[in-house]
Amino acid sequence: MDIFAKLKILSDAAKYDAACTSSGVDKKSVRGGIGSASACGICHTFAGDGRCVSLLKVLFTNICIYDCKYCVNRRSAETEKAAFTPKELADLAIQFYRRNYIEGLFLSSGVVRSPDYTCEQMIETLRILREEYKFNGYIHAKAIPGADSLLIARLGMLADRMSVNIEMPSQHSLQLLAPDKTKHSILTPMSYIKGRIEENCHDLVKYRHAPKFAPAGQSTQMIIGASPETDRQILNLTEGLYRSYNLKRVFFSAYMPVMEDQFLPSLDTKPPLWREHRLYQADWLLRFYGFAAKELLDEENENFHPYVDPKCNWALHHMEFFPMDVNRAPFEDLLRVPGIGVRSAHRIIAARRSGILSFDGLKKLGVVMKRAQYFISCRGRKLPGLDMSRQVVLRAMMSAREAKLYGTDLIGGRQLSLFEPNSVLEVGAKELIACLPLPL
Amino acid sequence: MSATAAVIYNYDGSFEGLLCCVFESYDKKEIPLAIIGPDYRQSMLLAGKDILTDPMKAKRVQSSIPKKISYEVYEFVCQAFLTCFPEKELYILLFLRQAYKCGPQIMNRLTDEIVYPLYKAVQHLQKESHLLKGFIRFSVANQVLISEIGPKNFVLPLLKQHFMERYPEERFLIYDKTHQMGLLYQPYQSRIVPIDALEMPEFDETEIQFRQLWKLFYDTIEIKGRHNEKCRMTQMPKRYWDYMTEFQSAPTLRRKIPNGPEKLPVKYK
């Protein structure tokens, strides 16, 4: 099989992995070597689906001894199988890197022969890159659950970021859909990696040149919409993962139906993209905006609002918090205002040191006034002539696309009230409902 | 107090030249209506005052900025000069006059009518240079990496450090078509030089193979069920596509060398 055929099969098999970031670590190339990394991450292109491509994302092989129902590479699937050789893959990565096509390598794999054997093959690939080519660019390696911890340790010394996919948002779903995997087999490598990273931090304090273990941290991914968990369960799990495993990122991947199964959504189901989008919005709120999962969703609201993003939704339910005086409010409070992001909040803090801010000035600082105007005041006064009626405010919180969706539902004779609990599932969430397999 | 004078400064288009305009403005206690570079001279009706570039004067202004204001302001001004903002010269002058008065605090005055447009322009420059760190595509010919870009801002000085750290052992050329300048690098030194035109050499079999492999990867990695043209265009505006391997049609990808090694487009010293 030639390299073209292999690349086609093995990148096709890897495309459902959401993580393609190259962030979290700053490195320069060493003399005689090649490759650097930038902490902010660099996107090298964007695929037709709008996702950033920054790494050469491939599987080492798509041969797999497991038979996870949601996975394209499962044992029983009748797709063509292929495997790189370590040398072949390392050469390809270097040649792509030289031409600035990529920022590094994302290496995952199906489990061939045994987890240990698979892990050894991956290690050999990374070893060639790091030692023979002196490659100092970004490498994201997938830890293979079930592999020996010494092998995981070696992999972590070669990679910048490690990840273990949690796959399903609950143990029950995992049992049903990935019968060969257990919660235990996933969490064990995850906590091992966490332990090694912490240990490594202590070493680095003592010895400046101590070799680094996964310096860009650890991430994970779960599939959304293949199993019946609610947004609240998923978000709580996400928060728990950030807390207890110190993860850098949790990725969500809207489920693309790949096969017919009684436990899976039918093949004509569309991927729940809006749900994935809302989860990412909430994920940002957890990581950068100081929100807690329980503030965003509770027993009465198990799922995110289809038309209004989680931050606006929170604000609309906490009007007692507003209006907020932009000239006085502390940074953490500014972050709670819809239309003010992390950057514009920083700019507000800087700009108000040298003068009092006006509504006009806020626009220049990058505040989205369309949303923010209902929640802020300048010099103790709200924007004059502001219409605070419910429908107007609600409309302002929606993006053009959300408003269009909302409009269609209105014509359908059903009007959404934001302030009634559980209205979310009744209206507009067809996509979501279609994804809930009833037999469960 | 300096008053706005009915005068226009003509300068030579260099950063030193602009610093001399700043010097002149303080020396004559006047603020010009405009500062015009050599490329726009004909279009002006008013006769202007030619400001000669004097390295001594430029040096005095240059060293006073970090000393009397801050290094941050100096860097900001240097970057502002690289932007495609049409009136950048006059705005830089007005910005500096204000900065000498109020000190490093000037960087916080983001809503000011002079600071804001400059700040926006610098952000545009930084964003474009960040995107290009990813979107630049090299082709290998005779062991030299060659690339062509068409940026709006003059980003080469901002790209220099990044690519030097990335490929310390390679020799490379980034040609900026808009500004007709090139960034040349060979271990371990770099230079930015004017280049009038660059004709891409034809590439050998190996180069074409990697281009095709990359295109194959690019086309495969998309999840077809999630196709989203609008999102792609927001993230990666179309003006960059012309220079990117993955958007080139098959014939361009296939361009071959007839025989033997050919000459490099520019002399590489």
UniProtKB/TrEMBL annotation, chain A:
The keyword Iron applies. Gene3D superfamilies: Aldolase class I, Photosystem II 12 kDa extrinsic protein. Pfam families: Fer4_12. It comes from the Bacteria. Keywords: Iron, Iron-sulfur, Metal-binding, S-adenosyl-L-methionine. GO terms for molecular function: catalytic activity; iron-sulfur cluster binding; metal ion binding. InterPro entries: Aldolase_TIM, DNA_rSAM_put, Endo/Exo/Phosphatase_dom_1, rSAM, rSAM_sf, RuvA_2-like. This is Putative DNA modification/repair radical SAM protein.
From TrEMBL, chain B:
InterPro entries: DNA_repair_put, DUF4130. It comes from the Bacteria. Residues 86-246 form the DUF4130 domain. Pfam families: DUF4130 (PF13566). This is Probable DNA metabolism protein.
